[in-house]
Structure formats: C-alpha cells, structure tokens
C-alpha cells in the first residue's frame, strides 16, 4: 500500500522572495564586526614566541653551549639521522631510514660557520677566529671543543660576553662569543633562513632546527605543555581555552605502544589513517554498512514523520513523486 505524502509537507508555507547573497554578505559583515570588537575589548594575552634572539639574550651561557654542541657534532640535529644526515641518534624507524637524507644538514657548517662567515663580511673582527678554527686539523678542533665544553659548565656572563676559566680553547671563546653576539642582534635568524642557492628565497628550516634540543624541550615544561601532560590541549596562557578539539589525537599519543614507539608520530598518523579508511569505506564493509539500520538514528531524524504517518518508513521517490509504503 502506498500513500501520497500530504501536500502540506512542502506547500503549506508562505513563500517570500529572498536575496541569499545579500544575507550572506550582511551576515559576514556582522560576524567581522563582532570579532573585531571582541578582540579589541577582550584581547588574548599570548606568550611571546621563542626566538633565537630572545634565547641568546636571556640564556647566554646555555646559548653558547647549544652552539658548541652544533659545532662539535653532539647537538640533537647534528647527529639526528634521516632526513637531515646520516647520524643515528634519532633514527625512529625503518620508514625513516628508507626515506633517506632529503634535507641535508651539516650542523657545524649550516648553523655556526656559515652565519659567522656572513657576519664576517660586515664585521671583519670575526674573521681571525673563524680562520684559525677552519685552518686547524679535525683532531685539534675536537680537542678545543672538548675542553671548552667542560669550561662552559662553569661559564658566567659578564659585560656582554661569556667568561670561563683560562685554558687551551684555541679560538673557540672568541668564536662562541661572536655567535652569541650574532644571536643577540637578531641577525642570526636571517642568516639561518637565507637560502644560499637562491638569494631571493628564504627557508626557515634551519632557523627552527637550530632551537631543537634544550630551548624547545625546556620551554613547554614550565607551562604543562609537554606531551606527557597532554600539552597540545593545554593553553599557553592560563584561563583561556586551548585546542580541546585535539583531545582524540592527543589521546592516541598516550597509548603505551604509541608513546613508547620508536616512531610515535608515524604510528599515531597510521592509526588515524586506518580510522579514516574505515569511515570512508563503511558502505562496503560487511557489518559496518548495516550499522545505520541497527542503530536507528534515521528514526530519530524522521520521528515527526513517523508520528504523523502510520506507514512507519521514510518516504521513497517513485516516478518523481514522494510516497510512503
């Protein structure tokens, strides 16, 4: 038995002409005004971004220690491994190794020596220490680096430079203080972003990677923003909402086999991709494609129709007209 849907379902309403473009633009204008007024009245205090300049200014000794680790190959990126170099310190998975070195970085050259060479063209006083270091044998460079690494543990900042106990450090004290001055001036950021092959193009890869290690690892700890604290959903400024919508991805990172994985990012992304595939192919997966019928969500959506019609099923289209059976 088929019953024609009552005409009042679609016809018993007063129709008025509308200009949807006008509505769209007027609504957009109202939203823009409200957002601008709210931002002016309430604002949002934000943490200042972590930059090379601020880190060098606020932590001069730690900055020189970080720069020295880049120079001697002991820094996090210096010995990271693929995709930056052939180190093994952070090789996360066979997948990473298979990708290979696609963004080659020599930390000593790219992070320290090249920026100092650029600076020496402006400030010739940097050149002697730079030349002395580059002229030394690798064994001699390593001897200086090891000695100065120990000395910096007791280094103090005085009169704009880092001072250590006297020792056989070669040109490293001058070289590291030149690096510190470059960092404090803000010019090191530009030197690291400069693409030597294409002078009109800038690449912030080295700028970001230079801060890897202590700066980027210690900064979130004081604000409960570290991964173990579900940091991605915490606000940088207390009292303000954060990225709560990232709760599910963050939850995945708390699973022990993901958190302890050698490739947690790849594992978490793979899990997310599997869920996406399950949703995308739900209509063709036996069992899953029957869930809508078993869950009965459509009955909630059509509850008013079911209440007013005894057919019990949603309307179907036959011959261009809606009917219910």
Q: Can you describe this structure in just a few lines?
A:
The chain has about 325 residues and is mainly alpha-helical. It is about 50% helix and about 5% strand.
Tag the structure with descriptive keywords.
two-stranded antiparallel ribbon; elongated; 325 residues; mainly alpha; 50% helix; 17 helices; 3-stranded antiparallel beta sheet
User: Roughly how many Å is the radius of gyration?
Assistant: 31 Å
Please outline the major beta sheet. Answer: 3 strands, antiparallel
Outline the low-pLDDT stretches: none
User: Number of helical segments?
Assistant: 17
The structure class reads mainly alpha
User: Could you tell me how far the N terminus lies from the C terminus, measured between alpha carbons in angstroms?
Assistant: 6 Å
Order of helices and strands: EHHHHHHHEEHHHHHHHHHHEE
- The shape, in one word, is elongated
Q: Helical amount among residues, as a percent range?
A: 40-55%
User: Approximately how much beta-strand content do the residues carry?
Assistant: under 5%
The number of distinct β-strands equals 5
Mean pLDDT over the residues = 84
Strand order of the largest sheet: 1-5-4
């Amino acid at each position: 038995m088929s019953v024609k849907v009552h005409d009042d379902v679609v016809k018993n309403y007063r129709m008025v002409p509308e200009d949807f473009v006008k509505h769209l633009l007027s609504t957009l204008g109202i939203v823009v005004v409200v957002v601008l007024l709210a931002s002016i009245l309430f604002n949002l205090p934000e943490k200042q971004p972590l930059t090379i300049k601020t880190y060098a200014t606020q932590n001069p000794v730690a900055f020189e220690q970080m720069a020295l680790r880049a120079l001697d190959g002991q820094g996090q990126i210096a010995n990271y491994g693929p995709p930056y170099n052939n180190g093994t310190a952070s090789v996360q998975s066979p997948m990473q190794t298979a990708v290979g070195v696609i963004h080659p970085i020599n930390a000593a050259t790219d992070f320290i020596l090249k920026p100092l060479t650029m600076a020496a063209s402006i400030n010739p006083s940097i050149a002697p220490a730079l030349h002395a270091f580059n002229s030394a044998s690798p064994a001699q460079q390593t001897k200086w680096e090891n000695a100065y690494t120990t000395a910096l543990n007791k280094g103090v900042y005085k009169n704009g430079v880092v001072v250590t106990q006297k020792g056989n450090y070669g040109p490293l004290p001058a070289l590291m203080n030149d690096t510190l001055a470059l960092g404090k001036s803000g010019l090191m950021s530009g030197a690291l972003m400069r693409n030597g092959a294409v002078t009109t193009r800038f690449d912030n890869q080295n700028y970001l990677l230079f801060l890897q290690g202590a700066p980027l690892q210690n900064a979130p700890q004081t604000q409960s923003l570290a991964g173990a604290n579900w940091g991605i959903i915490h606000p940088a400024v207390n009292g303000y909402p954060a990225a709560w919508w990232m709760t599910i991805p963050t939850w995945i990172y708390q699973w022990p086999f993901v958190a302890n994985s050698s490739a947690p990012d790849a594992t978490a992304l793979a899990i997310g991709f599997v869920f996406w595939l399950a949703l995308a192919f739900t209509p063709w997966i036996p069992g899953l494609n029957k869930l809508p019928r078993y869950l009965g969500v459509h009955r909630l959506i059509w509850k008013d129709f079911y209440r007013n019609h005894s057919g019990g099923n949603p309307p179907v289209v036959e011959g261009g007209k809606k009917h219910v059976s």
